[in-house]
Structure formats: C-alpha cells, structure tokens
Specification:
heterodimer, A: mainly alpha, Arp2/3 complex 21 kDa subunit ARPC3, 6 helices, about 70% helix, globular, B: alpha+beta, Thrombin, subunit H, six-stranded antiparallel beta barrel, 5 helices
C-alpha cells in the first residue's frame, strides 16, 4: 500500500503545484487568490501525518520555485514547516475533529503569509507588508476556507484515512 | 486454547516477540519524524543558501533552468485547460459594463482617428527631415526590434513578486533586460532567463521604474508603481514647472547618454494620466496614471529583441 500511496501523493502534489502556478495564481476573487497547493498540503498532512506532510511540502516547494525561477528553497522551507506542523496537529489535537481541516487552513494561510513576508524581508526582496497583511490576507483566508471541503474530500478519496499504528505488543511488568 | 499457551498470554492477545529488537531510537515514530523534518528543513536551507550566493551561471541555476524546461509542457497544458473557463468568466464580466464602455470607446475611436491622420502626416515629414539631416538616433521601436511573441505560462504564487513566466527563453534570443510589450503598451522587462522559459517583472512590481514623458507636453518623469495593491502607476519626479494634464498619454522616454541608455526604446505607450496635483511643500507634481495593459489578465506578450545587440 505504501508505494501506491507514495505515487498517489506525488501525483497529487505535482498536479496541485502546476495548477497553482499556471491557473490559480491568476484567479483574483474579492482581492484574493485561492491557494490550492496549500489546501492539498493541509489535506495530505491531516490524512497521513507529519512525515508525509513535510515531504510533500518540500517537493511542492521545489516544483513551485523551479517553475517560477524563484530562489530555490524558499517555498520548500515554508511548505515543509507547514506540512509538518499540520501533520502533528492532525495526529494529536485535531484527530477525528470535523473542523480540523478548516482550522488548519485558516491558521496555516495566516502563518504562511507571515512566514513568506519575513523570509522575503530577510532575503532583501520586496516585502510589501500592507499588501500581504491588510489587502489580500483575509480574502485569501476566505477563499481557501471556501475550497477546503472540496479539496479535502477529493484528497481523502485518493488517500483514504489511515488510523495511526497501535502497538501490537504489550510489555508485561516483571518480565 | 492450545496447551502450550498460558492463560495470561490468551488474555493479552497474540504476543509475538521479535528475535532481535532494533535500537529504540530507530523505530520510535517521534524520533523518525523529527529526523525527517530536520533533514528536509536543512536541505531547504542549504538550497536557499547555495542558490542565493551563487551567480546566475551557477550549478543550481542550471539545474533549475533544466527543471523549468521539463515543467514547461505541463504548464502550457494547464494553461490550455484553463483558458476556456477564463474566457467565459471574462465574457460575463465584460457584459456588466459593456454599454457604457462601448460609448466611451466610440468617442475614443473618433479622437484616435483624427490623431492618426495628423500622425501619418508628421511621420512622412519626420522621415524626410531625418534623411536631409543624416540624423543618427538610438534604436527605434518597432523597426529596430524583432518581437518574440510568446504565451504566459505561470505567475508568481504570492503577492511579493509582480512577475509572470513566459514560454520562451535564451533559445529564442531573449536576454535579461529585454523590454516586453503587448499591443496595448509596455508590460515590463525580462529579469530571469532559462533556455526555454523566462521571467518578466511587470511594471507594477515595486522594483520597476521606467523613464517616461508626456506625449503631449514632453514633461519627463519616472513611472513607478503607486501605493496600494492595484495596478495604478505614478509619474514621479515631474517638476512643478512642467505641464501634465489629465488624459495625456505617457510613453517611454528612451533616453541615451554617453555611457548608459534606457532599456526601453522611445515611444512605447505606458499609461494615461488620471489625476494631477501639487502641494506647496512638495518638490514634484503628484501624477497618477492608469496603465494601458491589464496586468491581471495577460495571456500573451511580445519580447522585443534588438536586431543589433
């Protein structure tokens, strides 16, 4: 099952990255842009945990930076951290919660915007805080929340939820 | 229950002890996930550092260029899939204010027709005078440039960069700083080039600036992105003694000095003045203008490659 899951996740990440770069980056609704790649990453992380989330984020970041000829590693770093964090949340507090995808998307969209702003500022690139934090952040969160359910459902259909491994062995005291 | 098994084992379920247990750190999921995350984060930081420090001809840039060429067909395919939907959305949006826009455009057509006749006469006269004076000028648009018409295949995923990716690169003769236009006017300049793709930084990017002048009054200034997230531009550095009126056309200045020359040829339409103001305390006029190019709905552009490099 694992190799099949790896292949499906890789295909999902690739398609989402290309769609985000070529299609959704040009969709402007209410002053915001939906981030389908981030939504896909949230779904994968919640369904498969932090290791898959971090790996998917790293790969997606590489594809985005390569396609846009941007500084390699910037998007990878942000998406790796995002994938890992959401995966941990899904394993712990967010397990079996219906609102987990929505809460994750809202928080991660906000944190991702802050992280991008900080990283671009550190690299000496233009970092228009007003545009990112006031003009587009809330429309982006709204659009992402609107698309959360369809993207999560589609991802869950491709990658059915797996219950976390439980220990098969019991350690007996005194043995 | 088999005789060989004890009651305690039966209660606890199937107990199977492995012959040799690997060290706990290797099987511990917490350790494993921390190791994976740390490795990926370090790899990202390493990539970032190396890419940031190396020159544009460095190894990672080469790998990225090759990767971009591999991804290009997928981006083009995605663009083709999305185009009918985008066209449909644009068609419905256009219906909303089609009537008022039609009346406005009819007035503009009448105005442009009159100007076209005047311009045709001036061009003929200009050509004759240039021949008589044996006038030597800088590269002229569009005669001294070869247009490379290309499709837009990607856009920057965040608001930080006002950039688009195009489906032509150094293989088509494109170089960094080549000007990019559409039939409406100036779009920006090429800032990154790979073999088969390139990145165009738009006029609306914070880093863009174009020396320009008022077509009607010859008042000079620098066109930059205005404050805010819209597509509004400002014509900066226009001194108060110069005349600029609302409705004036701003075109590229295309200046040349002994050592330097503007990367944009003279005469490319940039924007139309929408408001002009000045205060007693400010050295320059405040001129706002609306670009002719709709940057959010760009689908194809032409890169102007000089015929003589």
């Amino acid at each position: 099952m694992v190799p099949l899951d790896v292949a499906k996740t890789a295909a999902l990440v690739f398609v989402a990255s290309i769609a985000q770069v070529s299609i959704f980056s040009n969709v402007h609704v209410l002053g915001g842009r939906p981030d389908v790649l981030l939504l896909t990453l949230v779904s994968i992380s919640l369904l498969r945990g932090p290791i898959w989330g971090a790996a998917a984020g790293f790969g997606a970041g590489l594809i985005v930076d390569t396609a846009n000829l941007e500084t390699l590693g910037v998007t990878s770093l942000l998406l790796t951290l995002a994938g890992y964090w959401i995966g941990r949340y899904g394993e712990t507090t967010g397990r079996d919660r219906t609102h987990a995808p929505f809460l994750s998307v809202a928080v991660v969209t906000f944190v991702y915007a802050l992280g991008s702003l900080a990283l671009h500022f550190l690299l000496g690139e233009p970092a228009p805080a007003r545009v990112v934090l006031l003009d587009t952040l809330f429309p982006n969160i709204f659009l992402n929340l609107l698309l959360t359910w369809p993207v999560y459902t589609l991802t869950r259909r491709l990658l059915p939820f797996q219950a976390p491994e439980r220990k098969q062995e019991v350690q007996l005291l005194g043995h | 229950m088999p005789r060989s098994r004890s009651a305690r084992v039966a209660v606890l379920g199937s107990v199977q002890r492995r012959a040799s247990t690997p060290p706990p750190s290797r099987n511990n999921p917490a350790v494993r996930r921390r190791v994976v995350a740390t490795v990926l984060i370090l790899a990202s930081l390493l990539l970032l550092t190396v890419y940031f420090r190396e020159s544009s001809s460095g190894g990672l840039h080469g790998v990225q260029s090759a990767g971009a060429s591999v991804l290009k067909p997928f981006e083009v395919a995605a663009e083709h899939v999305a185009r009918p939907f985008r066209d449909a959305a644009g068609w419905f949006n256009g219906l909303v204010d089609a009537k008022s826009e039609n009346a406005k455009l009819r007035r503009e057509v009448d105005d442009w027709r009159r100007r076209a006749i005047e311009n045709a006469t001036a061009i003929r006269e200009n050509a004759i005078l240039r021949r008589l004076l044996a006038y030597e000028g800088s590269a002229r648009f569009p005669t001294d440039y070869r247009p490379v018409n290309t499709q837009i295949i990607s856009r920057a995923p965040t608001e930080f960069q006002q950039e688009v990716g195009i489906a032509a690169g150094s293989d088509s003769g494109i170089r960094v700083h080549d000007p990019v236009v559409t039939e409406d006017g100036l779009v920006g300049q090429v800032t990154t080039v790979a073999h088969t793709v390139a990145v165009v930084t738009l006029l609306t990017d914070e880093t863009s600036a174009v020396s320009a002048l008022d077509y009607q009054t010859a008042a000079g200034g620098i066109v930059q992105h205005g404050v805010g997230s819209g597509e509004t531009l400002v014509l900066d550095r226009v001194t108060k003694d110069k005349v600029v009126n609302p409705g004036d056309v701003i075109v590229t200045a295309g200046w040349r000095s002994e050592r330097f020359a503007s990367i944009y040829p003279r005469g490319i339409p940039v924007c139309k003045v929408t408001s002009v103001g000045q205060t007693d305390t400010d050295l320059y006029k405040q001129v706002q203008c609306e670009p002719y190019v709709h940057f959010s709905s760009l689908e194809a552009v032409a890169v102007l490659v000089p015929k003589r490099r």
